[in-house]
Structure formats: structure tokens, C-alpha cells
Amino acid sequence: MRIAFLGPHGTFCEQALRSVIDDLPDAAPEPAASTTAALDALRAGEADLACVPIESSVEGAVPATMDGLVESPPVVVVREILLPVRFGVLVRPGTAIADVRTVASHPHGEAQTRRWLAAHLPGAEVRMTPSTAAAAAAVADGQVDAAVCAPVAARYYGLDVLADGVHDTGDAVTRFVLVARAGSGLPAPTGADRTSIAATTVNEPGALLAILTEFAIRGVDLTRIESRPSKARLGTYWFFLDGAGHVAEAAMGEALAALHRRCTDLRFLGSYPRATVPDGSTAPSPPVAPPVPGQSAADYDDAAAWLRALRAAPDPGVR
Ligand SMILES: O=C(O)C(=O)Cc1ccccc1
Predict the structure, then answer these.
(1) Among the residues of the chain, which ranges form H helices?
(2) N or C: lower Cβ tally within 10 Å for the chain?
(3) Residue 223, ligand 1, Cβ within 6 A
(4) pLDDT, tens digit, 9 for 90 and up, residues 44-83
(5) Of ligand 1's atoms, which has the minimum distance to the CA of residue 135?
(6) Is any ligand 1 atom within 6 A of the Cβ of residue 88?
(7) Domains in the chain, start-ordered, CATH in brackets?
């Protein structure tokens, strides 16, 4: 199974993928030059899965991934992976901090170390690269003096760790997703799942509230909401929503069916098990809300059986 990941070797994305590799039979990780390239390889059939970063607890969404998820042909998330991230500053052997004129990183790396960079490398020009390991490779090639990246990248590129633990916020966690082509099967419900969708709607008062209401009245706990430009014209958006539950469950299934009637476009982006941080040190998201009375799976089954019985009652013959 070919798995395109955000490369080159030494990215956090590769670490995230390797943390679950034992669960993936015959996995063959293949580095891609960018998040977009990984999703393109999946869509083109050059990979069976793509592993890409989707959000961080510090910097929020990874826009290229959000945009890539709603392109065609459709793709679905089949697994999420949470990875605690720790940043180092890597340089060519012999480079001192006073020699660093240029420093490179992924935008999320820069965002999570901005204060450290301002304090310790105030004069350095900061450049963006498609990944943190691409920054390390650029240091090895002599294109820049330093990279903000995973300390493990040092051994891939023959670099030294000039400083470690340079992140501004402790306990930062990044969420990665494994993505498959739509139609290749859904993970079975585990009882602790997440469902992701993207929706567009008309621009009128209450349109977004109406979408949210379909989840609220069914007791579905939303865990994330983001918007991204639809790119059709200014002022039109995709709303990305994550909620606790699986499409196979009545509450989530009925909420999605209601959105299908209500939204101008609706993309199902997957139902997959909710992940926890491997070392358990940081809660991945606020605790799931307690079940709302009348909204459990048993309540839905009971209500459906009641309705079936009503409809099956014999015709009284009265016209
Ligand atoms: O560039 C990487 O190594 C990635 O995996 C993306 C990323 C960048 C910064 C923080 C977390 C993930």
C-alpha cells in the first residue's frame, strides 16, 4: 500500500505516519513535495493513501489541506493521528548562532517559534518552505543557514541541533489525517468516532445557524468549525464541520441527510475513530458532551420502530 506523505524524510508528518504504521498492512511510505502533491498523487492513483497535516493546536488549520479535501474527485479521511510537536534549530556543523542570516521553516513551524526567533535571531530573514524537513534539506544544500524543524531531521541531512525546544507554546499538538479515495470503504464505527463534512449554503440571515441547528437538535457535539473561501467569488465559503459520531449512527446520519436537503453543496469528508495523543499528556479536544436526553442510539432505534409500527397499522377502510 503506497502512502504519500508530506516529505521529504524527517517531517513531523512522517513521524505521525510511522506512529501508526504497524496498523497499515504492507505500508510503503513515499515522500511528496507538498501537501497538495500528496493529495494529487492519491487522486491520480499513484498512492493508495495520503498522510497530511490538517490543523495544529497553536496555529489552527493547514489551508492547503482544507482546500485539497474539497477538490474533485472526492476523497475521505479514514484515520486521524495526533502528534505532540517539538522544534529545534538545525544548522550545518560549525555554524554558530551569530552566523545565521537566513532561517527557513513550514509556516506552522514559523508560527510556533516566532517569539523565540525574534528573541534569538532578530536580524535573520525568515523563509517559508513546503515542510520543516524541506527547510533542513535547504540548510544542507547551503540555500539557508538554519531550519526550524523536528530535531530528528538532523540525522537525515547531516546537520547539528543548535537549539532544541524552541517552541513558544508547550504541549503543542498537530493533527494529521490519512486520506483515501472516496468509495474505497468506510472505517467501521467504534463508538468514539468523528465525522467531517464541508458545506456551502445560500447567503441569507440564519443560513449557517440552520446548518448548526441540524446537529444541535440531534445532540451531535461539534468539535470544530472552520471556513475557507469557495474560490468561486469573494464572500462565498466552504464551512468545514467536525462532529462526534459516525455516519452509520442515526443521529449523525439524519443530521447529514438534513444537510443534504438544505445545503447548496455538501461533501462527506469521512467518519473515522477519534485519536488520542500517544503519551496521553494533552487532551486532544474538550471532553465530549454528555448524551442529550432522547438522543442516544437506542432512543433513535426506539423512535424508528414506533414510526414503523404506526405506518404498518391496518387500513381502517374509512374514506
Ligand atoms: O513540515 C512538517 O514537518 C509537517 O509535518 C507539517 C508541520 C509543520 C509544523 C508543525 C507541524 C506540522
Answers:
(1) 12-18, 35-43, 63-69, 107-112, 114-120, 132-140, 153-157, 207-216, 250-262, 297-312
(2) C
(3) no
(4) 999 999 999 999 999 999 999 999 999 999 999 999 999 9
(5) 1
(6) no
(7) 2-84+172-273 (3.30.70.260), 88-164 (3.40.190.10)
